[in-house]
Amino acid sequence: MTATVKTAAVALVAVTIVWLAQPGTVSGHALVLESVPRPDEAVPPSPSRIVLRFNGLIERSLSRVAITDSNGSRLPLHPAAEGPPGHLILPVPALTPGNYTLEWRVLSADGHVTRGSFSFRVVPAP
Amino acid sequence: MVSFVDVLLRATALSGLALALGGVAFALLVLRPLALSEPDPRPLLRRTVGLIVAGALGVAVAQSLSLALQIGALADEAGWPVGAVLATGFSRASLVRVLACLGVVATCGALGRRPRAGLSWAALVSLALVLGGASAWISHAAGRFQSRGVLMGLDALHQAAAAIWVGGFVHLTVFSVKRGQAPWRGGLLRRFSAMALAAVGILVAAGVGLSLHYVAGAEALFGTAYGLMVLTKVVVLAGLVVLGGMNFLTVRRVSRGDEASLPRLWRFVEVEVGLGITVLFAAASLASIPPAVDVADRASLAEVAAKFTPGWPAFSTPTIQELLASAAPIMDLRAERKPEEYAWSEYNHHLAGLLVLAMGVLAALERSGRAGWARNWPLLFLGLAAVLFMRNDPRAWPLGPAGFWETLALADVLQHRLFVLLVVAFGLFEWMVRTGRLRSPRWALAFPLLAAFGGGFLLTHSHAMLNLKAEFLIDVTHTPLGMLGVLVGWTRWLELRLPPPHNRMPGRLWVLGLAMVGILLLLYREG
Fold it and tell me: How far apart are CA B4 and CA B416, in angstroms?
């Protein structure tokens, strides 16, 4: 192996190590611009559907949404097949009063997988 | 970890695109007049065509891995959604890119046998256009609701112009190595200069158009990760334009027969290659962050300014017991950081700042020629590595309860451990160079190369997703450190590569830059 090739190989290894040693970039830029219910909102009574509006086009068929109650029971939600672009409309069965965490995962049109979550409360009807 | 790997793959694909598109433009616009006058143009074109193939293969591999990564990231209890992913626009664009790359490789093979075949050149250009155009389908523009077509057009132009400019530098450097004094050199440089000028013009115009849509305002520019990354690209671009401008004037002098500045031109081209790669990494990072116009949770200008208001470093740290009592377990990635964690991190930065400032002072003493012992300053990197190893991840081994191997599964911890290895290697290596234990001039180039790329990568990382504003306010303090890293690296490179007395100013600049890194670390505030 010539000296030039050796030097280039060492440089490549060094740069690769520098590369790997960098603080990671958290990928994904699908943002929830608006949701029903809103984060930390108290909703009386249980909503019949949850709506998430994203900042760009998403692949609806590859979206996953689930809500988890305070006991840790997880309920997957299935987005409606139709809806405005960038929206997920999720029918929800009746929820008992309590705290819930909604977790979502979507694939944006440019191929980034993004995850997020927020909490909301279901309170008894007044 | 998946997200981090995805950005690396996108950066690799951008670098490959630069080699491929830059090579096609270089071959057609710069080399072609030379090639036509040669009885056998194959030797002239061999390296260029080889790099085009390497670039195309790089894009194909990176794009394929990126697609596989997305499929893996979407796998769940329902299985691997291969069919559903392959039906998406992103997948189709990825497959088009891969096929275009394979077409480029095949066409280059044909050109290697018959370099004058017009049909092969036409096919190569067409495939390059498809490759460049398909890039827009995997950009932010593909997901926008409004002005999608315009944004995709601007994005394709921006990416293609950047690829031709940065890739062109690489091709020019590789082509010119070992060619010595050649009579055609002046004409080649003039044609390259014209091509680079046109590429810069298109890149800037398209970039301004994209920024007007994605940033839209000063608060978005200075208060979001996306805006910060755009500013980073602009600053690095400005450096490239300055170097390019100086080279443009040199080319004009060469055309008039004055070749005195020619060695400096080649050294500047080397730096331009490095800065160009930095910009490509920034672009890959930018593609993974929400556009500033979509981000409501922005830092105000006052909040950003507060981060840069100097404060006296407090050399006190919580004890490890206090930290472990307050902080969440290391595996809890969503936990909110506590004041003790901020104080711990600030202390780490201040300690590192003392060591780096000492390195800068000793490096200056060494340059003065009055303190030969000061050449041992790189050994301070070992002290820095020890501090980082012990204190970077206090909840992991050796200070914390989480095991060494289990915590390597966390991207942050793995990166910290690799960084410690890098710092140790860096310090020992540079010490051996300065004390004459490694005599070859090539080894001395490792320090500036690692500093430049380390700074460049620091510039291009972002945490802006989990808690947009809070994480951005940490990122914004890293940006000047990254800029100084790039400055230290490339000015040290120029000090080594330029003949005296042209290397004196770069020599002063990198030592000053190193000391300033130390000062910034001493003034660092996180909480």
Answer: 14
